Amino acid sequence: MTSYNLSLTPCFLSGGVTVGGDGGRSLAGLRPAKVSTGRWVQVRKRSQPVRTFVRMGAEGNGTKSNGVNSNGVKSNGVFDDVLRMSQPAMGAIPSGPPPEKPDPEELEKQRRDLGRILTLFMKLATPFWKEEKGARWRLGGVVVLTLAQAGISVAFSYIGRDFWTALSMKNMDKFMYQAELFFGALVIGTPIVVLYTYSRDMLGLRWREWLTKKTLGDYFDSINYYDIENNSDVDNPDQRIAEDLAAFTQTSLQFFLTLLISFVDLLSFSTILFSIYPPLFLVLVGYASMGTFITTVIGKQLISINFAQLQKEADFRYSLVRVRENAESIAFYRGEDRERSTISKRFGGAVDNFAKLLKGQRNLEFFTNGYKYLIQVLPALVIAPLYFKGTIEFGVVNQSFSAFNHILNDLSLVISRFEALSKFSAGIDRLGEFAEFLERKVEEEKNGTAEKITLETTPEATIVLEGLTLSTPDAAKRVLLKDVNLKVEKGERVLIVGPSGVGKSSLLRAVAGLWRSGSGKVIRTEDSEVLFLPQRPYCTLGSLREQLTYPIRPEDANVDDKELQDVLNRVDLGSLPEKFGGLEAERDWSDVLSLGEQQRLAFGRLLLRKPALAILDESSSALDLEAEGRLYDFFAESGITVMSVGHRPSLLRYHNKKLRVLPNGETRIEEVKRADVAVAAEAI
């Protein structure tokens, strides 16, 4: 038996052990996806992962050494040939070491590199202000409100000085006058502060909206979302788009405006403090500089720890989502203990890392808390002698405290916000990594520099493969198939056969334009005339109508309810509208429909779409033979060109050609003979 080196992600058996008359749900994971990239398979931890499974064979069949299969049917040449389609390829592709991973110490060093963080920040932040109409005007309005807020603070400083001087001198008239000024400034200042906060957050929301739309555009462009899932080390793209982008825009704006306020405060209150007593200003600058340096030294490790915490929390969350998505499969396997152990291990990693984070914060707070407490008496220690000598009034002492604290807060920004800055830096690192990958893929597509299979389109409903070689997308570039040459004429139906793991499904992906690692050329009809039916059909979020018209939007589908109902009747799903409350009913369709029903629904899409080319990857594995026959007969009636992968011997009768994939990566084209079909049918 072929051995598979898998990650800790559970790997379920699949192959046709089913529940229900029409195939029902598979006992395997509810959303498996085959990986045909050789024996060494890596399962990445991400929000929508590539899941692997070990196939048991067509409908759970197997062969015995005595020439009789597990169903008790005597084997013969043709039937053995069909059964061998499902057997693992012995030595098809040599096992190789996994791709080299980046050095963890080097990654750690990069994440602490301030220059790199600033470069990534500018790359992420600049486009919005350059390209979005009105963005700079909105920012200008927020800046004006920021300056007004700083002006209000300076005004309160002088009002407070004279207020406390009048109180200490028992001057009632001056005291009441300053009280009136205080309330007047309060009436003016309150709306400014409120409008500043509102305008800042609204601008952050607009920035997030723009940046999210741009990122989603790059994410879905040239099927980059598919490449991220299969070929990159960029984990949890959903978290980066949904959470990290939101945090980046809001926090960036807050930090920018905080820096602006700090700069204005620094200029305003430095003048005040310097005019009161220059040595106090020098003490303040030295104290803040020392505090910033010590904080940076103690807390620099928090950046990488925060980065790791984001990743570990995302992995923990994904493991819980995975249980929810595959609850029935886990229950069938009684896999609770295994899942609990796996989830506990991931949670333990998050807890251990968070404990490390708390220790780092504890060490930092030993210094920062002492730093903050000393601030309360430091100005008094320096300026008190002047007050005792009568050189300055009590109100000036109060003003010096206010100015000292304002300036110290401005100069101590790194100290007071270091933990937030470390989290912010970790978020920038994750977003920058994501953006760089998308940018690189877009540039490769734009410049034509990507090493990939050439895909050309033609108005004809044909498939032409010219010197097609498939290799794994990792650094090893192991060859799966080599020099495939094939021409499928309009209306022909080709069945791809061969042992498991030799690249049959990868060949379908190459024809569909998904597998691009390798060389050679694929010529086929344009995308709008191609429909791909996987073994596990995709059920989109939405109504029953949207399931049938997918991937076309319902408003663009131009089909009426009667036509949709007719299609449902043809695929034996006519009762669904009545059962769930009409075509507009919304459910989690991947959960409420069995695998067999989902496959029927996918064939319903095909009946509606009427494509010129259909690509099928075991699309009828959960259907009974009668239903399978009715659906495949549609291809013959409509003249659709078909390329499919399947393990059932019953599929031979619906195809006129076989493309045999050999264990050494070579291929051979064979005609499907009537005698072969008859023998296979007899064996069934």
Automatic annotation (TrEMBL):
<dbReference type="InterPro" id="IPR003439">
    <property type="entry name" value="ABC_transporter-like_ATP-bd"/>
</dbReference>
<feature type="transmembrane region" description="Helical">
    <location>
        <begin position="280"/>
        <end position="299"/>
    </location>
</feature>
<feature type="transmembrane region" description="Helical">
    <location>
        <begin position="255"/>
        <end position="274"/>
    </location>
</feature>
<keyword id="KW-0547">Nucleotide-binding</keyword>
<keyword id="KW-0472">Membrane</keyword>
<dbReference type="InterPro" id="IPR017871">
    <property type="entry name" value="ABC_transporter-like_CS"/>
</dbReference>
<dbReference type="InterPro" id="IPR011527">
    <property type="entry name" value="ABC1_TM_dom"/>
</dbReference>
<dbReference type="InterPro" id="IPR036640">
    <property type="entry name" value="ABC1_TM_sf"/>
</dbReference>
<dbReference type="InterPro" id="IPR003593">
    <property type="entry name" value="AAA+_ATPase"/>
</dbReference>
<dbReference type="GO" id="GO:0140359">
    <property type="term" value="F:ABC-type transporter activity"/>
</dbReference>
<dbReference type="InterPro" id="IPR027417">
    <property type="entry name" value="P-loop_NTPase"/>
</dbReference>
<feature type="domain" description="ABC transporter">
    <location>
        <begin position="463"/>
        <end position="684"/>
    </location>
</feature>
<keyword id="KW-0812">Transmembrane</keyword>
<feature type="transmembrane region" description="Helical">
    <location>
        <begin position="139"/>
        <end position="159"/>
    </location>
</feature>
<dbReference type="GO" id="GO:0016020">
    <property type="term" value="C:membrane"/>
</dbReference>
<keyword id="KW-1133">Transmembrane helix</keyword>
<feature type="transmembrane region" description="Helical">
    <location>
        <begin position="179"/>
        <end position="198"/>
    </location>
</feature>
<keyword id="KW-0067">ATP-binding</keyword>
<dbReference type="GO" id="GO:0016887">
    <property type="term" value="F:ATP hydrolysis activity"/>
</dbReference>
<feature type="domain" description="ABC transmembrane type-1">
    <location>
        <begin position="141"/>
        <end position="423"/>
    </location>
</feature>
<keyword id="KW-0813">Transport</keyword>
<dbReference type="GO" id="GO:0005524">
    <property type="term" value="F:ATP binding"/>
</dbReference>
<comment type="similarity">
    <text>Belongs to the ABC transporter superfamily. ABCD family. Peroxisomal fatty acyl CoA transporter (TC 3.A.1.203) subfamily.</text>
</comment>
<protein>
    <recommendedName>
        <fullName>Probable ATP-dependent transporter ycf16</fullName>
    </recommendedName>
</protein>
<dbReference type="Pfam" id="PF00005">
    <property type="entry name" value="ABC_tran"/>
</dbReference>
<dbReference type="InterPro" id="IPR050835">
    <property type="entry name" value="ABC_transporter_sub-D"/>
</dbReference>
<dbReference type="Pfam" id="PF06472">
    <property type="entry name" value="ABC_membrane_2"/>
</dbReference>
